[in-house]
UniProtKB/TrEMBL annotation:
Pfam families: Lipase_GDSL. Keywords: Hydrolase, Lipid degradation, Lipid metabolism, Signal. Belongs to the 'GDSL' lipolytic enzyme family. GO terms for molecular function: hydrolase activity, acting on ester bonds. GO terms for biological process: lipid catabolic process. It comes from Malus domestica (Apple). This is GDSL esterase/lipase At5g03610-like. PANTHER family: GDSL ESTERASE_LIPASE, OSJNBB0059K02.9 PROTEIN. The keyword Signal applies. Residues 1-21 form the signal peptide.
Amino acid sequence: MKPPQTLFLLLTLFLFYLLSGQKGVLVSAAHHHHHTQRHLFDWRPTKLFVFGDSYSDTGNNGKSVASSWKQPYGITFPGKPSGRFSDGRVLTDFLARFIGVKSPIPYRFRKVGAKHLKYGVNFAYGGTGVFNTLVLDPNMTTQIDFFQKLIKNDYVFTPKDLHSSVALVTVAGNDYGTYVATNGSVQGWQPFITSVVNQVTVNLKRIYALGVSKIVVTALQPLGCLPSSTAAFSFQQCNGTENALVSFHNLLLQQAVAKLNNETKNSFIILDLYASFTSVFKNKGDLGSIKFENPLRPCCIGISSEYSCGSMDESGSKKYTICKNPESAFFWDTAHPTQQGWRAVYSALQATLEELY
């Protein structure tokens, strides 16, 4: 996403930034609770329901259109393209492992049999947002419609199933990319960000009302640090203006989730991708065996601006390059972490994830 570079916008958002007391690091809504509480309850999640975009999609996008079904995606796991926007596992897979279930099957494969729905369903589609975006895949409202149909019309999941479940909701910025692509005005940024967070809040309330006990929602990652933005700086520095916009989004989300938790006895948790991404960048992923030399440089990149990871010409020649070792890179392509990148983020989120219990 590349918002207009204007002094007025930067100063306005910086003012919001200062007034809010934010330092680019959010604290999860339940962060101050003692982790020892997890052993006081019998509740243990048995299912995971996923809503969102490419940060959590594990194969819903059509094979004929999505790059996630093309080589070299999936080379680390499962060894071939599987619909994940990475060389391997994505956030959904790591969260599923944490709560002790298998990664739920994509919604598009739901008709393979009820036994395959044992661990929940993934409704996320790469490229979508809370509103309609430039892709034709279902937005988050429609994804929740699918979920509601399975519950109320198809009777696939019982109230007990839902009570022992966790929902993951990812919002990675596609609404903002669409705003830029459709020539949204500079003056319109603040109300548009507000409308996005308001719709996220509506979605969270709806999932909760359908019976899900714990709902995890991602704060927006530092969009100004994605390779699509840092390419202009030779992958050496982030775009501060974009990250100021992100901080405003995250502030509003934090306020909304705090209000929801007051109403529902702490059923909502923020996974702070901003803090976890920036922590990894700062430390170059120095978490034991995980190390990234230049975390802003992607592993897979098009040979020129007109090509992207996975691009081929008419003769079938590759129009992209891949780094020698994906485990040495935080980003896989211009927007998505590698499996090792997600592992580093997951490690940084461990304390927050404990609040699920």
